Amino acid sequence: MKRITGRMGKRAGIAAGVTSLVVPMTIALGAAPAQAASCNVTTGPYQKQVEKFLGRTADGRQSLADCKAIQAFQLKHGITPSAGYAGAITWRTMNTMIQQKAAGSNPNKDRKCPTNKGRIACVDLTRQLTWIQDGSRLKYGPVPVRTGKDGTETRTGLKKIYWRNINHWSTIYHVSMPYSQFFDGGQAFHSTTKSMWNPPGSGGCVNMRPADAKAYWNLLRNGDDVFVYGRKPGT
């Protein structure tokens, strides 16, 4: 649980409009390590699925070219070890990207997030997505998030934002948490510079890209509902 310190940020005005999901494969995630690890040319358990995702010949057999393509994906998205092996974490990341893209502009198609609460921030742990809706009307998103890892999972259920701090500093993790909006015992929406795909996940908070966290700060306020549901793959 994060200790809440600092002074409460001034509530910003409500922003309007809908932000479409940026296809995660195109997100700029920073420079890859200067030197790649050696390529593992062993065929992985998710070889065919990974090959198909990368637009390669899906024959289910690892080649050096396959390995280098998988390795480039792993390096870009912070997946370790980045040896080009088509393992569970690599496929899990790709499959989540597929689900995010499929969500399009209707992330609550299955109506799992309540539509009778007015303005509410929805967090789908399974697809690693969040959005803001007002009734059934989409106000922002969906956008990718990075939620709690195994052992420090983001807790599910209906919550309310109870404290906001635009320049929060975590005294537990000793990191800056800009645009923090706390909704459950120290768990909060906040900005991070880490990749949304950087495994294994957060300490329980809902990590967001800086622009998305700022938009949430402007759209939400104390007392607004937050609904967290689903289960993050790998937890």
UniProtKB/TrEMBL annotation:
<feature type="active site" description="Proton donor/acceptor">
    <location>
        <position position="190"/>
    </location>
</feature>
<keyword id="KW-0808">Transferase</keyword>
<dbReference type="InterPro" id="IPR050979">
    <property type="entry name" value="LD-transpeptidase"/>
</dbReference>
<dbReference type="InterPro" id="IPR005490">
    <property type="entry name" value="LD_TPept_cat_dom"/>
</dbReference>
<keyword id="KW-0573">Peptidoglycan synthesis</keyword>
<keyword id="KW-0732">Signal</keyword>
<dbReference type="GO" id="GO:0005576">
    <property type="term" value="C:extracellular region"/>
</dbReference>
<feature type="signal peptide">
    <location>
        <begin position="1"/>
        <end position="36"/>
    </location>
</feature>
<protein>
    <submittedName>
        <fullName>Putative secreted protein</fullName>
    </submittedName>
</protein>
<keyword id="KW-0133">Cell shape</keyword>
<feature type="domain" description="L,D-TPase catalytic">
    <location>
        <begin position="118"/>
        <end position="229"/>
    </location>
</feature>
<dbReference type="GO" id="GO:0071972">
    <property type="term" value="F:peptidoglycan L,D-transpeptidase activity"/>
</dbReference>
<dbReference type="GO" id="GO:0016740">
    <property type="term" value="F:transferase activity"/>
</dbReference>
<feature type="active site" description="Nucleophile">
    <location>
        <position position="205"/>
    </location>
</feature>
<comment type="pathway">
    <text>Cell wall biogenesis; peptidoglycan biosynthesis.</text>
</comment>
<dbReference type="InterPro" id="IPR038063">
    <property type="entry name" value="Transpep_catalytic_dom"/>
</dbReference>
<keyword id="KW-0961">Cell wall biogenesis/degradation</keyword>
<dbReference type="GO" id="GO:0071555">
    <property type="term" value="P:cell wall organization"/>
</dbReference>
<dbReference type="GO" id="GO:0018104">
    <property type="term" value="P:peptidoglycan-protein cross-linking"/>
</dbReference>
<dbReference type="InterPro" id="IPR036365">
    <property type="entry name" value="PGBD-like_sf"/>
</dbReference>
<dbReference type="GO" id="GO:0008360">
    <property type="term" value="P:regulation of cell shape"/>
</dbReference>
<dbReference type="Pfam" id="PF03734">
    <property type="entry name" value="YkuD"/>
</dbReference>
